[in-house]
Amino acid sequence: MSPKGRPTQDKRDKRFEIRLSEETYKTLDECSERLKISKAEVIHKGIAMVKKEMDKK
Questions:
Q1: Distance, CA of 24 to CA of 43 (rounded, Å)
Q2: Element (H, E) at 44
Q3: In terms of pLDDT, which residue wins out, 43 or 1?
Q4: Which secondary-structure segment (H or E) carries 35?
Q5: 8 A C-beta contact, residue 25 and residue 17
Q6: Rounded to two decimals, what is the model's pTM?
Q7: Integer angstrom CA distances of residue 25 from 29, 33, 39
Q8: Contact 39, 29 (CB under 8 A)
Q9: What DSSP designation does 8 have?
């Protein structure tokens, strides 16, 4: 069976499930729509932003 999705150097083989409030989910959805990226990508960018902020300290 061939692999699905685009080939990438950043292999995403780890899964993580979270529960969100309705308000947080709506915010995630709005970010996704306005940036024209997936909800997963919004979350990836958020993690990168937090890491960058931590590295400043």
A1: 12
A2: helix 39-56
A3: 43
A4: helix 22-35
A5: no
A6: 0.77
A7: 6, 12, 10
A8: yes
A9: -
